Recover the amino acids of this structure.
């Protein structure tokens, strides 16, 4: 084992606040102390006289989600209490990602009251000769395309949108209870009431009980979290499954999911979004001249966004 400072220069980032920056979807990444999205909280407009943190470095949260560590392949700005590790020797991306994993393994040492700052360079990580051979054998997925499906801008003016009941748009079905002790090995996605990984809690050998091209919404657990499920799956009994009464596709689903998640504040562990309550719930949607949902607009709006070609 060696200390972090043996292989990396530990540098404090540029220390910016998102509230003081201009959002720009084609701008530069702002990496903050979050544990999600590779640490990226937004893309912001480049500041002409401010040099970004360099690419091919590891961002490390000194506070917030302490020790969340990510490989940054592009120059980036950083929020407060965020450090970056600049390698003193040339490492492959796979080894850099391995060291990110090693750094995260030290999260237990820190908390809100004990941040990772002065001691970051003294944390122990494996010597280069101790790195397992499988690290270089792992296949890294290709980066998604930033392109959009259609090159057109749409205005999200909600003033003329109308409310619709969920049961007018969807047939809502419940998941089914299955305990972990009853899991068998297999390839069927098991969707649980969690807030990440598209709801995938595990893969099981039981046959799917729900069709793909549907939306799952947690009515218990992480209430209100919603995900598009492209393939057949098993949903737990804490999950509702929405079958569209219209022609569903992944673009439409993502538009509807964004609106559904905005309703999360209405529900919690003590006020679950159970099936009967969900049937009666309202969702505000863009409409056509005949006051019916404008599904074509919803689909095209998602297709116009960056990264939509990678969906």
């Amino acid at each position: 084992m060696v200390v972090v400072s043996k292989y990396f220069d530990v540098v404090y980032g540029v220390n910016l606040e998102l509230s003081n920056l201009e959002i720009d979807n084609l701008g530069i990444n702002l990496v903050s102390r979050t544990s999600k999205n590779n640490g990226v909280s937004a893309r912001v407009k480049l500041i002409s006289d401010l040099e970004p943190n360099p690419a091919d470095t590891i961002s490390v949260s000194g506070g917030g989600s302490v020790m969340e560590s990510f490989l940054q392949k592009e120059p980036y700005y950083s929020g407060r209490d965020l450090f970056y590790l600049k390698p003193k020797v040339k490492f492959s991306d796979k080894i850099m990602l391995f060291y990110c994993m090693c750094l995260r393994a030290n999260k237990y040492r820190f908390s809100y009251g004990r941040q990772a700052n002065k001691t970051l360079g003294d944390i122990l990580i494996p010597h280069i000769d101790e790195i397992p051979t499988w690290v270089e054998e792992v296949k890294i997925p290709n980066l998604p395309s930033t392109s959009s499906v259609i090159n057109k801008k749409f205005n999200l003016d909600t003033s003329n949108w109308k409310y619709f009941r969920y049961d007018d748009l969807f047939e809502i079905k419940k998941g089914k209870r299955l305990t972990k002790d009853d899991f068998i090995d297999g390839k069927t996605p098991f969707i649980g009431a969690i807030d990440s990984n598209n709801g995938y809690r595990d893969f099981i050998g039981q046959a799917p009980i729900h069709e793909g091209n549907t939306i799952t919404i947690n009515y218990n657990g992480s209430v209100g979290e919603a995900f598009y499920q492209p393939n057949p799956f098993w949903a737990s009994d804490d999950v509702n499954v929405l079958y569209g009464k219209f022609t569903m596709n992944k673009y439409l689903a993502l538009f509807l999911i964004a609106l559904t998640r905005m309703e999360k504040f209405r529900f919690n562990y003590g006020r679950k979004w159970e099936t009967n309550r969900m049937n009666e719930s309202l969702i505000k949607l863009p409409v056509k001249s005949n006051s019916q949902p404008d599904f074509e607009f919803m689909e095209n709006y998602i297709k116009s966004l960056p990264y939509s070609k990678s969906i």
Observations:
- Residues 252 and 295 are 7 Å apart (CA to CA).
- DSSP finds seven helices and 18 strands in the chain.
- The first strand starts at residue 2 and ends at 3.
- The mean pLDDT is 91.
